[in-house]
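Bench notes, afternoon.
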Amino acid sequence: MDSVIVNRKAEKRWETGHPWIFRSDVLERAQSPAGAVRVTAANGRPLGVALWSPQSEISLRMIDVDPRATIDAEWWRRRLERAVQRRTHVTSQATAYRLVHGEADACPSLICDRYGEYLVVQLLSAGVESFRAEIVDALVQLLRPTGILARNDVPVRTREGLPRSVEALHGEVPREIEVEESGVRYLAAPWDGQKTGAFLDQRENRALIGGVSRGRALDCFSYHGSFALHLARAAQTVTALDSSASALERARANAALNDFGNIEFVEADAFDFLRAADARRERYDTIVLDPPAFAKTRQSLAGALRGYKEINLRGMKLLARDGHLFTASCSFHVGRDLFFEMLQEAAADSGRALAIRALTGQPSDHPEILTIPETGYIKGALLQALD
């Protein structure tokens, strides 16, 4: 195994629990291609073993603090087995959930989601890509899946010098997979759906708002209708709103799968819809605001906050007395403090008395590590109008 030498800044970063080392902090680079390398401090002290990505800005990702560790098939089997064991409690709640959450499971740049008897993986760095065969073999041994699909079509792979593709790595994987969560069924789209086929990271929040849903409900940015399906179990009527006609077609199929006849599907821009509904002084008893990431970069943060405030202000004004609003942001660059500050400003402008009923984040299968902020990105709040 080749070795690299890093500076004191990199050394301190690892000591404080963050696995990434940037190119600028590498004093002596490895001569080998992407893979695993041993890492030492400038004074010669062994630090551990890391995944090495020669072309990436993130050159090193720590995977083992033991500098003598051998990163082979057995190492991957043990590491993945621990991640799988952490999810045993989820099996009674859902058949679709995350098995490996990258850095949070000490498997940097590796994602693995389960959809029933199928797995979908993402290999997001050149270092982890070099262990593709070992990872697939370990997953097959541990879980005996019918098929494993690689959703390696994400832009980050380009920055790693890797090709982008979607391909089956083991067995066969269908275009649609029926899954269930908290008694609601829906069709995941592993080959071409968002993320790895569905938004698994809002599973617990969907159950939360579904538990207080009633009356007239509105689900903005509905996509395939995952929130709408949970609302429909208790609400009288649900409006599922999205700007994508194809997404709403999938949502209709999901509603039919559950025999829900109380969902209306509306193709429209959420901002325009909310403004028009506010102008008509409409009221909803239950509202969900789960938009896509408005802040893709730090430079877009100011505009994103204006967008978040706009939709939340409108949503707050549309709430009926005692109604519930679940609102969320999946923008990493919008931290918790900014998110809740935005909600306070929107509430003040709305003139409503809004009680915080729950502050939420990611489900337990998407753990957020305190020393690795990049493992967490979802912020959520369940609010209730008291006037």
